[in-house]
């Protein structure tokens, strides 16, 4: 195992109590600590200065990636109190610090995206679009560098430490066909070649190491059923006719899509049906129904995400105990029984309303 660069230098071994874990050499201790989940980083950094330096270096995050000890955190905002994170492995909820933004950003519509060990939140401040990012490593919010062409209502997705955003609307309402790549390791944006078709209210995803954007509208009256595929190696877009045949309308949410094991799934909100994409036939097959309703709000207020090898549905429900947000999951490998998906409850967040404003899943 490679030694920890830039961190071990600060651990002078002047006595047996100077090691990360007493009785173990630092390399072995680092291996042990790498199996501590990201949701515990804040607690680790409070132990002493040495642990704080270790966490802030980002080394443990990188080591976890190398060891494939990746877990997932679900970030969501459902009420004015702000963002919370949920660790499905230990059924633990954590409140994030407040974003140090202006009131306009707090009350404006926002979009979110988890990439690397950061979560980006896109919104509008008093005069311009703005991006705030939360670092899992540092446990706080900082202003993110703006895109080359600021936008909202775009499609986006991440692949490891990079993310791509495509389409959307600029601050004047113009529908865009431009796309940009964000590198979380450097915090920079790079313009990519334009798509064939401008679109807003669309969705993006990575599948087979290629980026796709589907759905949306090219104008207030024109819905798009075509998709586009971007090859990171050739830097070319390929148009795919009829890839998303579910017609969009102006009041409808962007397509609810998720990729698990390089297979694409989507929600047809009018029927509350989960569908699977057939790559060879460029068609969709019904799988089963959602555990919550998506039709009552035209697909808004519901999150449909990939969480490792599972599909995750985050939505609200009303019951005798009041309103709550429920996280349901299903592993496609488990199959379907008599046309029914066996959804499992991962977690419940009570007394926060029934509307999910934003949701992002981070692999950490």
Protein architecture, described:
It is built from five helices and 26 strands. It is mainly beta and about 375 residues long. About 35% of the residues are buried.
Shape: globular
* Percent helix range: under 10%
Q: Measured on Cα atoms, how large is the radius of gyration?
A: 21 Å
Portion of residues in beta strands equals 35-45%
Defining traits:
364 residues, mainly beta, four-stranded antiparallel beta sheet, disordered N terminus
Could you give the topology of this structure?
Layout: H1 26-33, H2 41-45, H3 49-57, H4 59-67, E1 72-77, E2 83-87, E3 92-95, H5 103-107, E4 111-115, E5 118-124, E6 129-135, E7 140-143, E8 155-159, E9 162-166, E10 179-183, E11 188-192, E12 203-207, E13 210-214, E14 217-219, E15 222-223, E16 227-231, E17 236-240, E18 256-260, E19 263-268, E20 273-278, E21 283-289, E22 303-307, E23 310-319, E24 322-330, E25 344-350, E26 358-363
How would you summarize this macromolecular structure in one to three sentences?
This protein is mainly β and 364 residues long. 10% of the residues lie in helices and 40% in strands. It has helices at residues 26-33, 41-45, 49-57, 59-67, 103-107; strands spanning 72-77, 83-87, 92-95, 111-115, 118-124, 129-135, 140-143, 155-159, 162-166, 179-183, 188-192, 203-207, 210-214, 217-219, 222-223, 227-231, 236-240, 256-260, 263-268, 273-278, 283-289, 303-307, 310-319, 322-330, 344-350, 358-363.
